[in-house]
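Sample entry (151 residues):
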Amino acid sequence: MWITLTADAVKTRLTKPELTALLGAARQAEQTDAGLLAEAASSVASEVRGYVSACSRNRLGPEGTIPEELLGSSLALVRRYLFTRLPGMKSLYDEVRQKETEDALTRLRDTAKGFFAVVAPESPAPAAEQVSGGSPSITKKTRRFGTEDGV
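Predicted structure, serialized as tokens:
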């Protein structure tokens, strides 16, 4: 199933102190709480869709959606986005969170290579939004000239 990454989903992966610190930093940077979380979710959803579309066997779901199988990985990337974006938040991006980000990126790379399968969407995005998974291979043809060619 393909789902929308929402601000509410993001909140489920943040502790109360983390959320309080993030929202306080957002207000100091003159951003709204909802705007910050929505921006993070949208940015990460686009990144995840890029990995998914890199595998030619995958089809993208409706715009802005991600495969449910990648929700955990997506939320780890949202935390990275939030903790590294606002001043004073890098202290929250500890070794455990960094390891979660590394694991999430490994899963996304595996998805891009076709090593981790995602369910096809019930309603695929229009063909114009589907991204081809790689470019065609073009090989160089070598021409030989010499006495064996009769030249």
